[in-house]
Amino acid sequence: MEKKRIAYLDALKCLAILLVIDLHIMAVNGFKPYENLASQMMYAPVMPLFFFVSGFLAYKQSMSIKDAWVNIRKKFVFLVIPALVFRVATDLMNQKSLFSFITGGMHGYWFTIVLFECFLVYYLITLVIKNEKWRIGVLLALSVAGIGMLAIDKDFGPAIFDLRRVTKFFQFFVLGTLAMKFRPKYESLMHNEVFKATFLIFYFIVLFLLTYDMPSVLHHFLRDVALRYFATFAIVSFFVCHENSFQTQTKFNSLINLIGQNSLAIYLIDYFFLPQFQPRPEWFDGLNMPTVHLVSMLYTVAITGLCLIFIKFLSNSKYIRLYVLGKK
Questions:
Q1: What distance in Å separates the CA atoms of residue 79 and residue 61, rounded to the nearest whole number?
Q2: Per-residue DSSP letters for 78-90?
Q3: pTM as predicted
Q4: Per-residue pLDDT at 279 exceeds 70
């Protein structure tokens, strides 16, 4: 029996993928998305939201060897194979080696590989450590270790595994599993007025602090950990508090759910066609930043619509739907 979808989680994924496309458009047209406070405020929670939602849905109280293998195999098919298809297709278009991803990494498709690795680590820990308290302790220890690895301001390990990003985002995946594990307490906390006010206040305090010169380690901690935590909690809290609004059967909510449920496929297709948006139009140069963001958002809406049409067309083949788009 298929599990009932949680509407606000699809809405969170919808928001995240729209911000990802907007960020891609800004970056490919020569703008630095994180160079000012407004951009940091907008884009800080983007990837953590994806990992949080994935962790929430990944939670397992226990797993057998068979269950672990089935889940790992499914995630490999849905996450790794489509990313490899698009990565190799990109290399073929640019007349590069078919295996350049091994040494050069996955470039824009890093997200699906890192997410698969998070699932892999979580499933293996759930399989091996039967005591749930010990398991939570190990997951939290790995999360703290990941925060510590931010002090290493360079990549490490084989490029294809993108281990530095695993250390950056696994903590948000773990956060999602804990939210599901303690769901009643988590939802109560998301509705707590003191909690909501505290995280919003600290969200803006961290933004303010990031305007000052400071040691690199402290800057990375504030930007990659503190700001992302406060932003993620603030946004998740808003969506949880308005959960009933997303459950109402309206055309707008149906569109939100459609985008959220197709977020992975949209991500893959968007990045594949991203080079077509270079260079930026000349008339961009005469715009101020608020107008640039507005234009970028309009592009985002148009690109999302085109991706949905393309996904519908490709989904006519169940093999393309599964192995290229990562959809059931």
A1: 23
A2: IIIHHHHHHHHHH
A3: 0.91
A4: no
